Backbone:
């Protein structure tokens, strides 16, 4: 027995379309003739040239179902992560709360406000002396 890191957790094919690349029977039959639809899963689609007449077809169908289930679980996790947050409360209970939109409910920090004020003061000092501003104000009246 050898210790090979990562070997006990092989990568799962991420999409059903990628699965067909691992079966040379599918590639050989597609060279001879192509399926009616470009996204054919070689299961029960009309006009499929690959379906059912090869030795490992049952294995392909089992793996296809597994990949499709895995893809569904990933989509559900991604959707639930975006809309819910999990909170542990007393007694080990798990609560699911709606996730607030990021930073929409927060006020700017004092540091940010002070920096903006300092930048404004610097911009005003670049305009000229305060007396010049008062002269402009007098002209506006």
Residues:
């Amino acid at each position: 027995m050898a210790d090979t890191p990562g070997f006990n957790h092989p990568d799962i094919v991420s999409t059903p379309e990628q699965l067909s690349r691992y079966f040379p029977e599918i590639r050989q039959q597609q060279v001879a003739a192509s399926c009616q639809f470009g996204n054919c899963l070689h299961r029960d689609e009309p006009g499929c040239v690959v379906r059912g007449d090869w030795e490992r077809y049952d294995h392909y169908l089992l793996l296809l179902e597994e990949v499709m289930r895995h893809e569904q679980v990933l989509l559900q996790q991604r959707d639930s992560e975006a809309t819910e947050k999990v909170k542990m409360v007393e007694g080990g209970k798990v609560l699911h709360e709606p996730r607030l939109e990021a930073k929409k409910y927060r006020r700017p920090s004092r540091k940010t406000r002070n920096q903006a004020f300092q930048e404004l003061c610097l911009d005003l000092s670049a305009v000229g002396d305060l007396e010049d501003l008062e002269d402009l104000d007098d002209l506006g009246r």
